[in-house]
Amino acid sequence: xxxxxxxxxxxxxIEGLLREEALAISALEVMPWMLLLAMFEVASKKRQTNxxxxxxxxxxxxxxxxxxxxxxxxxxTLKALSDGLDACITPMTCPRKGKVRVLDLTTTDTHFWSTxxxxxxxxxxxxxxxxEQPKETCHDSGMKxxxxxxxxxxxxxxxxxxxxxxxxxWAQQRKGSIHLCCLKPQIWESCVSNVIEILKSVDLxxxxxxHLRDLWMDDMAAFGPYLGQMRNLHTLVLEGIxxxxxxxxxxxxxxxxxxxxxxxxxxxxxxxxxxxxxxxxLVGCMREWLRSLxxxxxxxxxxxxxxxxxxxxxLPQCLNLSELQHLHLSxxxxxxxLGPLGLLLERVxxxxxxxELEKCWLEDSGFRVLLPALSQCSQLTKVNFIDNNLxxxxxxxxxxxxxxxxxxxxxxxxxxxxxxDHRGLVLVDQFDQLCPELLGIIRTKRKPHKVxxxxxxxxxCFNYSIYELESRHCLCQQ
Length: 478
Ligand SMILES: [Zn+2]
Ligand SMILES: [Zn+2]
Hints:
Bound molecules: zinc ion
Strand order of the largest sheet: 4-6-7-8-9-10-11-12-13-14-15-16-17
Number of strands: 17
Number of helices: 19
Shape: globular
Helix content: 25-40%
Low-confidence stretches: 122-134
Strand content: 5-15%
Largest sheet: 13 strands, mixed
Structural class: alpha/beta
Radius of gyration: 27 Å
Distance between the termini: 33 Å
């Protein structure tokens, strides 16, 4: 038995009522709003679709953030909710008139339920929940009288695809009455023709964040015209876009696809965050990618890619990086001349808040070039340099610099090279002795919040040894 509190009388009453569905549904018309909310929570978790279907038309608030309760794409629940909204479109069928205007299927808005629970446990005042208004999520769709269904629309596996297809078809059949507001679609490994059918059916101007993962480059070309219509996109995440014809002589096709994709970039007037992960096509193209943007980026994250010297050389020249707040170049091979990266840091020293250079194969000579500019980045709250090959003297120099950065709350450093033997195994005594000494350098200037020293991954047990005020060794050193 756990330590959970015993159920309240109200919970027991609701669960008892829900065991008799017909009785529960007939009681809805006279049920006080507090019980309605509690019953909706329980019925959602239990996936009692008949009860949910009956509750949507009498929901007493404008906003129904059901995604925060269900947290998964359950088709039966979606069908019940959409049936419930159908009853709202033809209100003659509702004996007790509800107020719902927005059905939110995204999983992020838990505020409503936590506020209501707090209200219930407090003085039972209706004020807090009564004043909850739906968040304005999208641009003015020009459909003031329509009901809005907010979704993130995920196309990741069969379940999410079936869910998305039902939702889109249902909304399509009620065009004029329902505004399907798709904010953050995630499209993974999908059949491009299905995705395009779905993109044709949603208002592309509502999309704020787009994740495209594990797609073929030739599919990306098909997305081109739809990407260009996402005028309000602020975050673009591209992961694992690969070329079907990599091994043949289709160089010309590859260039054509890249230029199709890049020709859409100038249309993203508000793009602020660009994440590029595991895309080999990036090599040598940084200038083309970044200069075609219309506005300075806040976040540039390039991971598991290779950058050429020409790519690095372009970074400090790029006007679209002049106000950068987050620069992440982890798992990017940075063994060449790092002067340009130092110049970029110098340029963004007044705005940069996080810098991640994890696993960049950096050595002392390369890293030393970054130190003067790094010590001037006074707004930094997070740095991550783990999995680089730095010696004890260089690391001490680095820590003398970062110790002056008073806003740092999260710092990750590699264990110095002196902590490994000639085979690359961790020398535990050395690690346990050197890490507290290194931490002491920060302590002479300021109080550290969260500082981590980590070794490379152990090649025997595939674990790290970590020092965060105390040591935790990899499995074979315990
Ligand atoms: Zn919208
Ligand atoms: Zn080990």
